[in-house]
Amino acid sequence: MKKYINFSKLSEREILFISLGIGIITALILGEIFCRTNFYSYKNARVPEKFSKYSLCEFNYVLAVISFILSSGGVYFFLKQKGNK
Q1: Chain mean position to CA 47
Q2: Phi and psi (nearest 5°) for 29?
Q3: Which of 35, 68, 69, 83 could be a cystine partner for 27, CB 3.0 to 4.6 Å?
Q4: Residue 38 gets which letter from DSSP?
Q5: What is the 3-state secondary structure (H, E, C) of the chain?
Q6: What are the domain boundaries of the chain?
Q7: pLDDT digit string (tens) for 40-81?
């Protein structure tokens, strides 16, 4: 099987940029897919779901931050470990 990326030749800066890029992409995708739904009345006040006239799906910032930290950290340690071998 042919290797496309030689992990041992990646510099510290390249590992950092790759891991941050993957972390940002993962955070944006998961924050948008698993959005937070808010329900509103006709006067634009937040209400429970059974009294709502419409709903809006808002970006889930908590999930985005958590997924950014976990995915970028995981990719960083993976690339760092592959580079040391």
Answers
A1: 29
A2: -65, -50
A3: 68
A4: E
A5: CCCCCCHHHCCHHHHHHHHHHHHHHHHHHHHHHCCEEEEECCCCCECCHHHCCEEEEECCHHHHHHHHHHHHHHHHHHHHHHHHC
A6: 10-84
A7: 888 878 888 887 888 888 999 999 999 999 999 999 999 988
Side chain identity at residue 69, one-letter code: I
Residue with tokens 């329900």: 39
The whole-angstrom distance between residue 30's C-alpha and the CA centroid of its chain comes to 5
Residues 18, 59: contact at Cβ < 8 Å? no
Cβ atoms of residues 68 and 26 within 8 Å: yes
pTM higher than 0.70 for the full model? yes
Tokens of 55: 């709903």
Residues in contact with 41: Cβ distance below 8 Å, sequence separation at least 6, in sequence order: 47, 51, 52, 53
